[in-house]
Write a structure and sequence with these properties.
The complex is a heterotrimer of chains A (115), B (122) and C (507).
Chain A: H1 16-26, H2 33-58, H3 81-114
Helix pairs in contact in A: 2-3
Chain B: H1 10-19, H2 24-49, H3 72-121
Helix pairs in contact in B: 2-3
Chain C: E1 8-11, H1 15-26, E2 31-34, E3 46-49, E4 52-55, H2 66-75, E5 81-85, E6 90-92, E7 95-97, H3 103-110, H4 112-127, H5 136-144, H6 146-161, H7 170-177, H8 182-192, E8 208-212, H9 216-229, E9 232-235, E10 238-246, E11 249-257, E12 260-265, E13 268-271, H10 275-280, E14 282-283, H11 288-295, E15 298-309, E16 319-322, E17 331-334, H12 335-338, E18 349-357, H13 362-365, H14 368-381, E19 390-404, H15 409-420, E20 426-428, H16 431-434, H17 440-454, H18 476-480, H19 485-489, H20 501-506
The chains are: A mainly alpha (115), B mainly alpha (122), C alpha/beta (507).
Chain lengths: 115, 122, 507
């Protein structure tokens, strides 16, 4: 009995792992809106919280004259400890919305390009 | 890209998802849209609030966005500038991320390639 | 083939020849092994120089073939085998690089500036690749950048084969370097970051191997003893001078032993001698076309300069790949790290400096003492050993260590094989016997299958395709016999094919 004929039993020349490699080269990231929203929300919220409290701790005659401008957009926000909590909430919501919007628009553009 | 039908192994799927590229134009468009809208809305909100002087701090944007002012027309100029700046930022972020990933994948490929090569000479 | 029980004549006492004798003894079929040298083992011999043992190249006892693994452990007891951890780093630019490469170690070794240039070179290759991918240098540069190609691929390749990389065909690079998929490489790289019990010892494709206490020669000397006690005859210093044949079969061989010659007849013949020589020794002479074809089969030769160094320890590696272009030496073996029994004095070390060359070239023709001096000088250039610590040395030349797949080899071998297929009782096995760059285990397997053919099987030893990369289904019979030939084939070395004029014209 001869050895099996390698040409007659040969599998597809490209093994599965090479197909995976091709997919890797072509794959495009999809962003998850909730995750990106959460990340940016946490970053923004914590950022405002910390920035506010740093200035509160610094003190001075006028505390945070520039940061207080955020109160123009974040109604109720002040450069105080309580204000830092308000800012945390506003920052989180704004960051979350921003992250969600970025991911949504990104995914939409990627889908359109794919077509 | 939906790879779930094409890739059987969960590990392979995870690897593909982890190392997939960020679309530069898409991220640019997304950040540009967000930033443009933010500047636009911020300008409108200040206009609606009113007061004297009108938005002296937001006006400082004109140092970078030449032609911008805290007016209706300025809001649209700010929208345009914001979009362009955001687009560039997003495009660069995606480019940089992809480059860093490429650099990592290059080291992985080089390592594997040299390993199999020298082993094949023994 | 008939189920003959007459004597089998085996030419050569390397792994293939001795394995054939061993298997024949099991079947109680008488055989005679003819060895032209004074020692057994062929390329897998271990040389004993004043108690210092050294090998010709590195011989890890690793195989995916159960039959071969079983034979190794039948011959030597477990106690005679040592389980060794593999460490074989790359030496370049006076620095050691872990093998496989480790990111931080490579970065430190190459330096940040050089690493950046390597990366930029890679990016440039991605943006502006060489459109013509005919040759090895083009193929590798396109994938890794010219800079990395020059550092880790060019010098070593040219040392091993003696062929410029722009004359080696790209397909050779593609077969082996592409073997590990990117996804598998990523998994391996990610797993690499797990701490191991061995500290910095790196996991490679084969990170541990077995090794006989006193080298592969110990294995083959033991096999030689066994076969002689079990019905086989072994003649040393018995070079085959002529091979007699007639239509359809080989009838006998003429062997020169000292001043005398004798004729030895047999019913079957198993040859491990270089194919080129076999054709040249046929009597009557083979057709002219076949002789011409045989002369087109070429070899890469090898010499080892063994140096006894008056130091108990030098470096922890079993061997080092020398990628440095400033020296001729290609690899340096540290035989004490293969087995402590390889040196008689624990305060000393025995190194083997390996030089790839062509028989008759400048290196080959150098006097032994000059080669020893060259070895010492190169060790000094590499900053590995102080020449004053070298006490003694010896040189072993090994002709025809590797068959070369140059432009004409395939056609030459086809003509030779076609002719020899007409000699029904002759089988070619082993590396030089088949002009195939295979490791010890494959050589042994071809011999095992040749013996099976003598007792009625019909294996085509040439059908084991060394170009296969993927595991394929084996027949149920092969599976029962534990023979996974395709799996084995994927572990065998690769030989580059040289670019020819017709390749250039086709491109």
């Amino acid at each position: 009995m001869a050895l099996h004929n390698s040409t007659s039993n040969r599998r597809n020349a490209i093994a599965p792992e090479d197909e995976t490699e091709q997919l890797l080269a072509q794959a495009v990231v999809r962003l998850n809106g909730h995750i990106l929203g959460l990340v940016l929300g946490v970053l923004a919220g914590l950022g405002i919280f910390l920035a506010t409290n740093i200035l509160v701790l610094k003190g001075g005659d006028v505390v945070g004259p520039h940061l207080s401008l955020l109160g123009q957009f974040f109604i109720g926000y002040t450069v105080t400890f309580v204000g830092s909590l308000v800012g945390l909430a506003y920052g989180f919501v704004t960051g979350y919305v921003a992250g969600f919007i970025i991911a949504t628009i990104y995914n939409l553009v990627v889908s359109v390009k794919k077509k | 890209m939906d790879i779930s039908n094409q890739v059987r192994s969960p590990t392979d799927r995870a690897i593909i998802q982890a190392f997939a590229k960020l679309d530069r134009a898409a991220l640019g468009f997304a950040l540009g849209t967000l930033l443009g809208l933010t500047v636009f809305l911020a300008t409108i909100i200040i206009l609606v609030k009113g007061g004297e002087p009108l938005g002296p701090n937001l006006e400082l944007l004109s140092q970078f966005f030449i032609g911008y002012s805290v007016t209706i027309a300025g809001a649209f100029i700010g929208l345009a500038y914001g979009f362009v700046s955001g687009f560039i930022a997003g495009w660069l972020i995606a480019l940089l991320r992809n480059l860093v990933l490429d650099a990592y994948l290059f080291t992985v490929k080089a390592r594997a390639g040299l390993t199999t090569y020298l082993d094949s000479l023994d | 083939m008939s189920n003959g029980r007459d004597k089998v004549v085996i030419i050569g006492s390397g792994p293939a020849g001795l394995t054939a004798a061993y298997e024949l003894c099991k079947l109680e079929i008488p055989s005679i092994v003819l060895e032209k040298d004074q020692v057994v083992g062929g390329l897998s011999r271990t040389v004993n120089y004043k108690g210092y043992h050294f090998d010709i190249g590195g011989h890890r006892f690793f195989t995916k073939v159960k039959a071969v693994e079983d034979m190794w452990h039948e011959v030597l007891t477990n106690g005679q085998f040592l389980r060794r951890g593999r460490l074989s780093r790359i030496y370049y630019n006076k620095k050691f690089f872990y093998y496989p490469l480790k990111a931080t170690n490579a970065l430190m070794g190459l330096g940040i500036w050089n690493s950046t240039l390597i990366l930029l070179s890679y990016l440039r290759a991605q943006v502006f690749p060489e459109k013509n991918e005919e040759t090895f240098d083009q193929w590798v540069s396109n994938r890794f950048g010219k800079r990395l190609y020059k550092i880790f691929f060019k010098t070593y390749t040219e040392k091993v084969w003696g062929i410029p990389c722009n004359e080696i065909m790209a397909e050779w690079a593609a077969q082996r370097i592409k073997g590990l998929s990117l996804v598998a490489a990523i998994k391996s790289a990610l797993l690499q970051t797990r701490p191991t019990n061995k500290g910095d010892v790196i996991k490679t494709l084969i990170d541990e191997f077995d090794y006989p206490e006193r080298g592969p020669g110990m294995m083959w000397e033991t096999v030689a003893d066994i076969v002689q006690k079990n019905g086989s005859e072994l003649k040393m210093n018995a070079g085959v001078e002529k091979i007699f044949w007639r239509e359809g079969s080989v009838t006998g061989v003429q062997v020169g032993t000292g001043d005398q010659s004798e004729k030895i007849e047999g019913s079957h013949f198993i040859s491990t001698m270089p194919v080129r020589e076999l054709i040249q020794k046929l009597e009557p002479a083979a057709p002219e076309e076949v002789i011409q074809a045989a002369e087109g089969l070429n070899y890469r030769d090898f010499l080892t300069v063994a140096l006894v160094v008056n130091k108990p320890e030098l470096f922890p590696d079993n061997w080092i790949y020398i990628h440095d272009p400033d020296v001729h030496v290609g690899r340096i073996q540290n035989f004490k790290n293969w087995s402590p029994f390889m040196v008689p004095d624990a305060n000393k070390t025995c190194l083997g400096l390996e030089y790839f060359c062509f028989e008759g070239d400048g290196l080959w023709n150098m006097a032994d003492r000059d080669l020893i001096e060259l070895g010492k000088k190169e060790l000094k250039i590499l900053r590995l050993v102080n020449p004053d610590d070298v006490e003694d040395g010896a040189v072993v030349r090994m002709p025809k260590a590797y068959p070369v797949y140059d432009g004409t080899y395939a056609e030459s071998l086809r003509i030779v094989r076609e002719f020899l297929a007409g000699l029904g009782n002759l089988q070619l096995v082993g590396r030089n016997g088949m002009h195939k760059y295979n490791n010890q285990d494959h050589s042994m397997l071809t011999a095992m299958l040749a013996v099976k053919n003598i007792v009625g099987a019909n294996y085509d030893l040439w059908m084991v395709n060394a170009e296969q990369e993927y595991h394929e289904e084996v027949t149920s019979e092969e599976a029962e016999q534990g023979v996974d030939l395709a799996l084995l084939a994927s572990t065998q070395p690769r030989v580059p094919r040289r670019k020819t004029v017709s390749d250039s014209q086709q491109g």
